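--- STAGE predict ---
source: upstream dedup step, 1 unique chain passed
mode: sequence only
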Amino acid sequence: MLQNYEACLLLGMAKLKLDELNRVSVDEFKQQEKLPVVVVLDEVRSMHNVGSIFRTSDGFAVEAIYLCGITGQPPHREIEKTALGATQSVDWKYFKQTVDAIHELKANGYLVIAIEQASESMLLNAFNPQPNQRYALVLGNEVNGVSEEVMQLADGCIEIPQFGTKHSFNVVVSAGIVLWDFFAKLNLNPKKS
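--- STAGE serialize ---
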């Protein structure tokens, strides 16, 4: 483990150049195996948040994003500002009502999980996604969270442990934390069945 800046210098550590990152093309991304997750945005109002979630979803290779209600849709300048082209790689679909998206996902075998603080929530660190299950992760409005109507339809609820005074994360931060956790548990440290 590196202890200080001098150790980094001794190792000759340098940032990778863009051509050294081995990024896949949009066509290659469309063909690659995906994390078995659909991200559902329930009335997310900020276009910047939507764009950032596209970019994060691209980074973890999710199956799709479902944009619901007032959630902005590509193409939109404010979404593209933070998505940096991820609206081209990540499949997405729009639903006027979030409940319609939830019904479609359930009919297709997805387990619907709200990311919310609720009386029956499970802490993220205790949740173990199963490798043969597909998940729909519902992220809510920046002020009101996941709607009560959607909470009633969810199969479960995951809460991110927090230790500060605010007891809330930005929706983009929540998406990043949860998607990393799912990706790591399913791909980096899968449990033997």
